[in-house]
Amino acid sequence: MSPGKAAACRALVGLQWGDEGKGKLIDWLAAEARHVARFQGGHNAGHTVVVEGRKFVLHLLPSGVINEGCRCYIGQGVALDLAALLEEIEILRQGGVDCAGRLAVSPHCALVMPHHVQLDAAREQQAAGKIGTTLRGIGPAQEDRAARCAVRLGDVLAGAARIEASVAKANCQLAGLHGAPAADAAAIAAEIAKLAEQVKPYVADVPAELEAAAGRGEAILLEGAQGALLDIEQGSYPFVTSSSCLASGSAPGLGIDLRPEVIGVAKAYVTRVGMGALPTRIEGKEAEFLVEQGAEFGATTSRRRDVGWLDIPALRHALRLNACGSIALTKLDVLGLLERVKVCVAYRLDGERLASWPPSDRMLQRCEPEWIELPGWGALPDKVEAYDELPAACRDYVAKIEELAGARVEIVSCGPERGATLWRT
């Protein structure tokens, strides 16, 4: 189904712990957009797009890149690994998707460099303080940004990079705290300079281009990575990512406030990878079934995702944080295959009923869910043209989510393919 009339600017963000299906929906919405901009995260995120049986896994490039009519942007809020970006561009080129002339990269992106990856790995090898990162170096690179000693792409191209200072800082921690080998500053500086020259043709003034596009009334999509429950400030801290995953992060991440209409993406159930609480966790055969049927393995690390029933307190929290106008609900085709499905409507903590998200992951770990139970709806039709064609039990499940979450489900996804998506209005 067509995504309908394009709004001037939409932001698509995750409402859970990531892996909600944002890549597929960005690709679908991009059919009627001229511009798609990624505003945060790094190549620790993985967005999967399936088009006519071909699978594309994107980590840095916006998911709209498969649509040849889209110009794509990587904003300054993205932690940029130059080698990973060039590899992704080449993989797409070999698959028949050419980025030439369609990609704009902000020179203000902070770079993820080899010593950041080394430091990330050294930390995760120690049990104390382990977060469960993707080992891509994103956290250490973002620490440099906050400490105002990051190396940005434009610095390298201008010959004013302070790579040696960044490596020296990392080496103090590698050797002093972790007993790990030191990084080679000269080798890293030479490598980064070479990679930056290859990326140079894509460098552009991202906020100026987006401002001009908005002035012309052209449709713009803003693509978030990860999800609200992984947000550095508002997520299940400390088991979070190192950037803001909220729609409000699009303004600093792109250098322009486009005041987008916000669509939040949620699975019909929840998943999580890495460390941290998952209060609605499913165990046993039902969990294995959802993992297998839903292909619940990370697009970046291939790690098996933990699965849980839909968590309404967490969903309400994420909706509020993002000021979402509507919900896009995915994986209905997977969840409905279970005979009965549960929904968490509240928590109990130390005997007290909590209808809202607790303020820390430590408290979340002690929460016990309060459930309601609904019937499954079986396999969905291979091709659904209208929302009313979905089974009644499936529509009842959607209606119950709307009632409990206080937001309308405007988009439903019934399968991995681009076309298996319905816009209700």
Automatic annotation (TrEMBL):
Its EC number is 6.3.4.4. GTP binds at residues 18-24, 46-48, 305, 331-333, 413-415. Binds 1 Mg(2+) ion per subunit. GO terms for molecular function: adenylosuccinate synthase activity; GTP binding; magnesium ion binding. Its main location: cytoplasm. Pathway: Purine metabolism; AMP biosynthesis via de novo pathway; AMP from IMP: step 1/2. Plays an important role in the de novo pathway of purine nucleotide biosynthesis. Catalyzes the first committed step in the biosynthesis of AMP from IMP. Belongs to the adenylosuccinate synthetase family. This is Adenylosuccinate synthetase. It comes from Candidatus Amphirhobacter heronislandensis.
